[in-house]
Every structure is written in C-alpha cells, then in structure tokens.
Amino acid sequence: MLGLRRESDPAWVGIALSDVGRLLQDHAHCEKKAAATALSILLGVPDRPELVRPLTELAQEETRHFFQVLAETERRGFALGRCPVDPYARALQLCVRGEGLERLRDRLLIGSLIEARSSERFLLLARHCEDERLSRMWGGLFDAEAEHHTLFVRLAGLLGGTRAARDRLDVLAEDEAAIVAGLPLRVAIH
Ligand SMILES: [Fe+2]
Ligand SMILES: [Fe+2]
Predict the structure, then answer these.
(1) What spacing in Å lies between the alpha carbon of 29 and ligand 2's midpoint?
(2) Angstrom distances, CA of residue 146 to CA of 35, 88, 117, 149, 152
(3) Ligand 2 mean position, distance from CA 135 (Å)
(4) What is the full DSSP assignment across 140-165?
(5) N or C: which end of the chain has fewer CB within 10 A?
(6) How do residues 29-43 score in pLDDT, each as one tens digit?
(7) Distance of CA 85 from the midpoint of ligand 2 (Å)
(8) In this structure, are residues 129 and 29 in contact, taking their beta carbons and an 8 Å threshold?
C-alpha cells in the first residue's frame, strides 16, 4: 500500500487499541511533529514558492489534525503529556544522506514514507476501533495522510527530478520496511 514494502504486523492494531488514551497522546504528538517538520523543511527552500506554499498549507492542515486529536485526547480525560520517544522516526532520520538540496529531498521522501505508514495504520484503527467517533476520525485521517504521501513524493521530484526522487524512494522504502520489522509492537502509531 502507498509504496510500503512491508505491511504492518496484524497484531499491532490490537495492542494499539488496548490503551486508547495513551494511543491518542502519541497520535497527537505525531500530528504536531508533522506540522513542525513541514515548517522546518520549508526553511531550506525559502526562495522556492512551489515548495514553500504547499508546505505551509501542509503545516496548517497538520495543525488542524493536531487540534482534532488533542480534543479527542482531552475528551477522554488525558492531557497532551510529554512528547514520547519515537524510535521509528528516529531510525528513519538516520537514513537521511547528502547535503543541501539532496538532504532536503531525503527529508521529503522520508516524510512521504511516514505519511504512508501512518495512513496504513489509521485505516487499521478505523476498521477495528469500536468507538464510532474515533473510527470516523481515523478514517478521515487515512485519506488525508495518503494524500500527503503523494504530495511529499511530488515535492521531492522538484528537487533534482522525478526519476531520481523515485529511485531514492525505492531505497528508503526498503530501509523503512526493515525499521518497521525490527521495532517492537507498542501502544503508539509507529
Ligand atoms: Fe496529519
Ligand atoms: Fe500528514
């Protein structure tokens, strides 16, 4: 799905839904980090409106997602809480190579993979969560993050060409699959 080389372990969704409050806290932080990452990437291309504009819109949309998930977290009596350690994102960041625009392209491609994995998992949550309200929320976010995957791949193509971006994405997708396979299943989105 969405260029992922490995499906999530089917056991993940049961583990994730075993503590919905903690899952929502982790999810809220994921959306907040998505907004911050979009803004951080655009700082590297301030003179490229074709990148700055969509990244700004993305940050705005991810902030809306953050607000939405935070509201659900608080509805269940939980505060946002401290930002949990995210071994998945940390391992992916270590795959970034190169300098300057090449490095930025890697960050966009890694963004595309995180969006794809999130999207895959939101669909699993939408299908398995018995709380209708949360199931609807995750169903909506599945669509949104799938579109973000496509957006990141397109933006990466603006830095050095579509073909080169696709080739690099092939390599990073293999890395992502190996990272997912090596991580324990947790009450967390990743
Ligand atoms: Fe999002
Ligand atoms: Fe996203």
Answers:
(1) 12
(2) 16, 19, 9, 5, 10
(3) 18
(4) HHHHHHHHHHHHHHHHHHTTT-HHHH
(5) N
(6) 999 999 999 999 999
(7) 19
(8) no
